[in-house]
Amino acid sequence: MKRSRPPEPKPPVDGDDLALFRDAVGPVRDLKPRSEPPGRPRPKPRARMAELDELDAAEAFKRGGDLPVLDAAATLAYRRDLLPRAVYQRLKRGELAPQDELDLHGLDARTAERQLRAFMADAHRDGLGCVRLIHGKGRQSEGAPVLKNMVDRLLRHRSDVLGFHSAPAAQGGTGAVLVLLAPRAPR
Q1: Where does the record place Basic and acidic residues bias (predicted)?
Q2: I want to staple 92 with a disulfide (CB 3.0 to 4.6 A). Which of 28, 42, 165, 187 is the partner?
Q3: Cα separation of 79 and 163, whole Å?
Q4: What is the 3-state secondary structure (H, E, C) of the chain?
């Protein structure tokens, strides 16, 4: 297919640049106006109030929420309704032998909480029925015993804990707690 050559441009008649341009371009037509190019996509909406509620709940959990602050001599005690009273009484008297124990003495609260969570998860995974946690009496803490209150708060919120009670005097007294764990669900 042979292409034809465009016609030779006409020599300018006068020095007017606009006239020269119009002669060069020829007839024109108006273009349809274009829409604006798409902008940046809007960010997805966030549930800010839900996020704030979650933060408040996490802070309340860290503080212990509505749980009373325990002093050094306070006895830790908790029993779920599904734990028979007779079994809880045996735990309270120290008749159930702990299968493992964790000593939290001398640890800061954050490290102790991390170790306690890992220990409890391992104990439940391994199918242990009873464990002893040594938190100390908190006599060196200013104010309330930090570890004792953290242990109480954390154990109350674990679904695998059936009950717990401060150990008898021969096993640590109010500086330790015996914990009864729920049996592991079969797979």
Answers
A1: 1-13, 29-39
A2: 165
A3: 4
A4: CCCCCCCCCCCCCCCCHHHHHHHHHCCCCCCCCCCCCCCCCCCCCCCHHHHHHHHHHHHHHHHCCCCCCCCCCCCCEEECCCCCHHHHHHHHHCCCCCCEEEECCCCCHHHHHHHHHHHHHHHHHCCCCEEEEECCCCCCCCCCCHHHHHHHHHHHCCCCEEEEEECCHHHCHHHEEEEEECCCCCC
The pLDDT mean for the chain works out to 83
- Number of structural domains, the chain? 1
- Give the mean model confidence (pLDDT) for residues 156-183: 91
pLDDT digits (tens, 9 = 90+) for 119-137: 999 999 999 999 999 998 8
Contacts with 83 (C-beta within 8 Å, 6 or more apart), sequence order: 162, 163, 180
> What is the span of the domain harbouring residue 86?
67-181
* pLDDT tops 90 at residue 102: yes
Mean pLDDT computed over 129-147: 82
